[in-house]
Amino acid sequence: MKDIRNIAFVGASGAGKTSLVEQILYNAKATTRIGKVEDGNTVMDFNVEEIEKGMSMSLGMANFNWKNHKINILDTPGSADFVSEQISASTAVENLLLVANAAAGFEVSLEQSIELLERTNTAKGIIINRMDNEGADFFKALEAVRENSNLNPIPILIPVGSEHRFEGVVDIIKQEAFIKGETSDIPSNMKDQVEESRMILMEAVAESDDELLEKYFEAGELTSEELTSGIKKAISRGFVVPAFACSATSNIAVNDLINTFIEYLPSAKVKNEIIVLENDKEKSIETSEEGNLIAYVFKSFSDPNVGDIAYVRVFSGCLKSGMDVLVPEKRSKDKIGSMYFVVGKNRKETDEIKAGDMGALVKIKVARSFNSIVSVHSNMRLAETELPTPCYWQTIKAVNQHDEDKIGSALTRLLDEDPTINLEMNSETRESILSGIGEQQILFLQKKLKSRFKIDTKLKLPSIPYKETIKGFADVSYKHKKQSGGRGQYAEVYIKVSPKPRGEGFEFINSIVGGVIPTKFIPAIRKGLNEIMLKGIISNHPVIDISVDCYYGSFHDVDSSEMAFKIASWQALKKAFEVGKFILLEPIHELQIIIPNEYMGDVMGDITTRRGKILGMEQKGKKQILNAKMPLAELFNYYPALKSLTQGRGKFNQKFSYYEKVPDDIATKVIAKANKKEE
Ligand SMILES: Nc1nc2c(ncn2[C@@H]2O[C@H](COP(=O)(O)OP(=O)(O)O)[C@@H](O)[C@H]2O)c(=O)[nH]1
Ligand SMILES: [Mg+2]
User: What is this structure's pTM?
Assistant: First the structure.
């Protein structure tokens, strides 16, 4: 454990994460040639969809050796739609490193990664890549992060030169320069800057520890040893966020960066506390090689050639092939088959994965993304991973009828790969609804359905699950009587229908006395009402929240039947809806919208035009959190609207809240549409 470093790269798309991993792997001799994202031949971006687009869409794993250490590295996609990949990666590592483009200023999709850094208790750092780019500015890039977060990056490897003159870095801790691969003196024109950076570093380290702070005040500075051991501790606790300059594609300062990984970032041994649930109670434990097995599947997917693959991080104990294990979230046993250490698309078989390490399980049956793998008799599992709620919805349907049967099982397999996508069959609207984070994510799923399962699909906005109810009280009766040919039909019911409070559903009261309707027909009345309520009376949407009291009626010895009473109760309820007035209800959702302050006015105005209401607001750092409610009909396409209003920076969580009356003008349109469909 002490010789392993687990690192995940997160950050905006295009910052150079994949290129950096490619260069690192080559420098460490884990690969024999350097691929390029543009050429679609990197080891990490190997899905057809990733090659086609020239960008990462799913998490990639690699490992390499460096000076007798093993480093596991996870590369993640930067696009906001694929945030679940960054979340997955963050659950598997001790070190979360933000990779930012030195020349880009503050990028929108950095935000989600910054939030991840802010809320996880991993060690964190910032790599300012693309230092060779025109417009590259290390300190400006760090300032942009500082302004938009509560992280305080402390430079450790500062650049020597920049843009086309970028040629190396100065290590502020060691007070050495590394230029063109050689150790050299600090360039004389950088002395002041290096000194200033050293003071900033020393202060940050001193502030992270009471004992050091005391020494720092007494002596006016820290010794090299105090600084070196202090910085490691401060980084490990997340108090100091070290910052490094490099250029991936020109391979400048990349080796120095790898050195800092093993010199300053915490190993699996140093940062060995994890939160588990023991018999569902949260508790913190220390992981170790000798401990009982605790492993976590942070990503599972199906590979067209290999089958089901699960990327697993072993926290405690040892995972051995052939072993029986328990998957507590599924309450099911599983068996460990073949295991591999992975370098992107390449892999090497192993028969064990020890504590602190990670690898891939092949053809594993039960364990999927975000499942724990523990000893058969264990009562522990890892704490649940929090995921954002959906903010983008589409129905999905096979283009060809004959694919309808296949689509379900194909989707189930693909959904395992991205736990932020949900599939729901809406029994009312009879639609299969996919919900997730964004359009790109759903389109990626659609592409995978095509490339792996050969299923063409079409997407569209879901229908709104409106409901019908009655506005006021109605006392009505209906007599169903038919005499034409054969046996006649006869039934008569008297009902009182009244509205019930939202959410209370359907109540049926039987107050028949004296046998005016024989007891054997009462269930038919109830069933008849249920049937028509499900179908809807006015607009083809189900009826909710009414009470029906059946208090009088009549029957005929020969002509009455269950069917006749059903028909009579349907017609009676229809009549009641005319007398008591029908209203259409729509689902209202509660939202938590998070936006940078400057967009407040626009976003609030837009909420109002979407028939929404602001319930409250709250300042959090440089952001505003708006609590609001909004009809689902408006929410379905809120995501793109909010993105465009806030230049991509706004986001929201939502959940269903209650049903509310639809304004009359909209209700009229819904009814007209429903009746047209019916015809
Ligand atoms: N000039 C320059 N370009 C880079 C550097 N690193 C990556 N790139 C380019 O930036 C683009 C995005 O790189 P990629 O690795 O896909 O970024 P990712 O989205 O963070 O994985 C590609 O065209 C790379 O060639 C660098 O250090 N300098
Ligand atoms: Mg990438």
Answer: 0.83
